[in-house]
Write a structure and sequence with these properties.
By secondary structure, the protein is an alpha/beta fold. 35% of the residues lie in helices and 23% in strands.
């Protein structure tokens, strides 16, 4: 059955390539930022409603859930796509370019959304052959901490779901290639804001004031020593100071300077050590400078980790469908992904599909870059992978 279904999947995807490209182009041309995906979510909802047998729920202001209930007993599985774009001005030399100035899809979320929409359409056309329930989660705001996944979960998106899957188009693999990694995939992500306050005054008389600028410099230096001196060298962790704001004249020392940044770790222990050490550094700075130092740490995504046995099953499904030579391992990265929120309550796997674009001069633009382009040739393979994974787990139930 897997071999016959695989052939049918390919035929349906190839027949739908033009429509898939149209959806992708539309989403790319009209990007919206996190929690503002009003037109994007309306586009998604309208198409889901047009698919036979798919019911649509609006779980959050811009979150959409499509439900395909076959009416036959079986497993309930879900697949998620994120919809938000980034506040980046796109390089306008692209053939298909953002029409919203200062906003672009620079991480492939337009591809995720278009691909899951097409998978939903194809599955709806195959519903008489299927069993169980399939849910299509179109999530807002993956890019804005703490992310939109939490709201989807709180509104019941995963109630009754046994497995959830996610796919990310990757510039490390070419179209038709995939990678799956068991264990840590994406780091936890916390952001910190540190406010340093003291007596302001004339820069010519620093002995009469608290030098908040110098204190901020010392704090930034201290923060940058925490990972190499407080975290096990065998662990992976990053602490980056990304902003310092304070003062607006040349001859006065300000009463306040603010420091912000991010903490990324691939294990819980390092995460807690760094948060504790930031507070310790702030206390030491207060004593040394007489300034008041306030630390606020906002927890974001938790570590995204794929379970070993389940990752092995996904690898086997992809290898059977696309060939052993096209399925790879990939190392963990220090980026974050709020798909981890779903894995707190439901089993699941997050994997990558190739969409590498190489420019004529050999350049490969990274994600979150104005020159980023998702390789459209990867989209049909992504749709096939979504279908293969969903159908394999639906069939597992049938085989019990």
């Amino acid at each position: 059955m897997r071999r016959r279904m695989g052939k049918e999947i390919r035929e349906k995807v190839y027949a739908a390539e033009e429509e898939l490209a149209q959806w992708f182009h539309h989403l790319h041309e009209y990007p919206e930022l996190g929690f503002e995906e009003r037109k994007t979510s309306a586009f998604v909802a309208e198409r889901l409603k047009s698919f036979p047998g798919v019911n649509v729920k609006r779980l959050t202001p811009t979150g959409v859930l499509g439900i395909l209930d076959t009416g036959r007993k079986g497993r309930c599985v879900a697949f998620r796509a994120d919809m938000d774009a980034l506040p980046i001005e796109e390089n306008d030399t692209h053939r298909v370019c953002s029409k919203h100035r200062g906003v672009m899809h620079a991480c492939g979320h337009d591809g995720h959304t278009a691909s899951l929409l097409m998978a939903a359409k194809i599955l709806s056309e195959m519903r008489e052959k299927l069993r169980g329930e399939i849910r299509f989660l179109f999530q807002p705001s993956e890019e804005i901490q703490p992310g939109g996944a939490k709201g989807m979960v709180e509104q019941g998106a995963l109630e009754g779901v046994e497995y959830i899957f996610g796919l990310h188009y990757s510039i490390d693999e070419y179209p038709g290639q995939f990678s799956v990694h068991a264990g840590a995939n994406f780091a936890s992500n916390d952001k910190f804001d540190i406010t340093i306050e003291g007596k302001e005054g004339h820069a010519a008389f620093p002995h009469l004031v608290n030098d908040t600028v110098l204190a901020a410099v010392r704090m930034a230096e201290a923060l940058n020593t925490l990972v190499p001196r407080c975290v096990d060298p065998a662990s992976s962790a990053v602490l980056s100071v990304t902003k310092i704001h304070g003062g607006n004249t040349y001859n006065s020392l300000p009463d306040k300077v603010m420091i912000g940044g991010t903490i990324r770790t691939l294990d819980i222990e390092s995460r807690e050590v760094l948060k504790e050490r930031i507070s310790d550094s702030a206390e030491g700075l207060e004593k040394a400078t007489g300034c008041r130092v306030n630390v606020k740490i906002e927890e974001g995504c938790t570590l995204l980790s794929n379970e070993q046995e389940l990752a092995g099953k996904i690898k086997r499904i992809l290898k059977d469908a696309f060939g052993e030579e096209n399925v790879f391992e990939h190392p963990p990265v220090m980026g974050c992904e709020d798909f981890s929120e779903y894995l707190k309550t439901t089993k699941g796997i997050y994997f990558r599909a190739g969409a590498r674009t190489v420019e004529e001069d050999g350049t490969v633009f990274p994600t979150h870059n104005s020159g980023f382009r998702l390789n459209e040739k990867g989209l049909p393979y992504g749709v096939m992978a979504i279908l293969e994974v969903i159908l394999a787990f639906i069939e597992m139930e049938a085989e019990k």
